[in-house]
Hints:
This protein is mainly beta. It is built from one helix and 22 strands.
Amino acid sequence: MIPNTQLRKHLPPTWLTRLQNIRHKFRGVKLHSDTIIYFGAKLLRYPKNIHLFKDVIVKTGAHICPCNEKSEVFIGSRTTIGFNTFIYASSMITIGEDCMIAPFVYIVDSNHGTDKKNVMNKQLNISSPIQIGSDVWVGSHSVILSGISIGDGAIIAAGSVVKKDVPPYTIVGGTPATIIGKRK
C-alpha cells in the first residue's frame, strides 16, 4: 500500500485531537485512537452507532448522523470526510477504506413518501442502505441517494447526483450521473 503523504503527513494527531477523541469515545462513538475529528465536525443523534476506523479524518462542518437507534454509519480506515459533508443514515451507510469524500457532499439513505393525500412532513421515511466501496473518490457537491452501491475504485465527478449503482473503477458524472469513463 502506498502511504498518503499529501494529507496525513501534514495532519499528525495532536493532544487536542486526542482530547476530542476522548470526548467522542465518552459519547459512545467507536473510533480508533489515530482518527482525527476536526473541531466543528458534528457526530449527531446516536453516536454509539458511528464506527470510525484507523486514520479516518472528519473535517470541520461535516455531519455524521445515525438518525435512529437502529441506524449505523461505518467509515473505513484512511478515509477522509471533507468539510461540510453530510452523512445521514436511517438504516445503514458504509464507506470503505482509502476513500476521499470531498467537501459539500450529501449522502442520505432515506427519502420521504410522496403520496399527495398526505402532507409531506407527515409521511414515512423510506430507507435503503448505501454501500460505498474502497478507493472511491466522491467529488465536491455530489449527492448520493438511498439504495446505491458504488464499487471499489469508482470516481464520482463533482456536482453529480448518483441515482443508480456505479460499477467498480467506473467514472460517472452529471445529473443524474452516467458513465463517462473507466479508470486505467
